[in-house]
Amino acid sequence: MYFFTGFPGFIALMLLSELIGKWAPEKIYTLVLPHMKDKAIAEKERICSFTHFPHEKWEVIEGDITKPNLSLSREQLHMLASSVTHVFHLAAIYDLAVPENIARTVNVEGTKRVNEWVSSLPHLQRYIYFSTAYVSGTRQGMIFEHELDKGQAFKNHYEETKFLAEVAVQEIARNVPTTIIRPGIVVGHSKTGETIKFDGLYFMFNMFERLKFLPIIPYLGKGEAQGNFVPVDYIIDATLYLAHADEASGETYHLTDPNPYHMRDIYRMMMTEYLGKEPKGTLPLRLAKWAMSFSFVRQWLRVEKEALEYFECASIYDATNARNTLIKAGIVCPDFRDVIPVMARYYRKHRNDETKQLVIR
């Protein structure tokens, strides 16, 4: 019996679709906020229709991870305790520009509430927690999967609160069978390009679209940092395998690009693919950040200022544990050079869909 938070978010949607297709779950429970219930039911119906999964085997439950007992009734808690074997905790605020109070409430306090509930489940076989590789914060150099607290600072409230949440998960992992997933920056499907939001690396496409009238577009900074961008289908395949592999219990995995390109190369490949031309010259990153400090610039370009930090994030993410485990199932991360054209095609087709654009403040 499978229990998910974070539905109907993109990764949860993809996980559930693949779970149904490959693992034939006996029962699925998805916890959703009351105002998201209609959307969640619509997504459930859509997935059940194309997978032919019986509707009665999937229950959408109203709740709130920031409230005691997840806002579940005594009857619901008893029902779940008697059946749940796998818990996937994905609910979080992923926005790089999220205010601190909101990030702490959802990412930290919400995860602690889920931890408390998970620790009470008598039949639990695995707790799968979605963290991020960027719990490393401002650390530089090689970062290993077994590392967490090295006294690091953080580039934004998202990173800091995900770090604090993972600290809390690590504490209960001594007594609860836990697998921690640390993805890099997730992009769309490597074959279809499908994504739910044009954030993260898609901000570059937004910027290219706005600036395409210019005869010359410069590089942003030196771009010496490695870019860790991974397609969502790799994340899904890897996560579902690790959620069921005995050897993954008690482990932490970097689902990052094992052969990352430098940001300068990624920037050039994206511009060449989307605009058919290469960057010329270099705009110092400090000047780009200064320009992005003005809201009207951010809003016109459709780029969050915080995204620029990753052009100089000199971190290298070792993924030996993930690679050695996943290779047994033939699961490998695609070469990002091959993913960029697929991303560009999908973005070009859907760039005017306002539901896929973040509200930039």
From TrEMBL:
Key words, A-Z: Isomerase
Pfam families: NAD_binding_4
GO molecular function: alcohol-forming very long-chain fatty acyl-CoA reductase activity; isomerase activity
InterPro entries found in the cross-reference section: FAR (IPR026055), FAR_NAD-bd (IPR013120), NAD(P)-bd_dom_sf (IPR036291)
Domain Thioester reductase (TE): 5-238
Family annotation (Gene3D superfamilies): NAD(P)-binding Rossmann-like Domain
Keyword flag Isomerase: yes
PANTHER family per UniProt: MALE STERILITY PROTEIN 2-RELATED
Identification of the protein by name: 3-beta hydroxysteroid dehydrogenase/isomerase family protein
Organism of origin: Anoxybacteroides amylolyticum
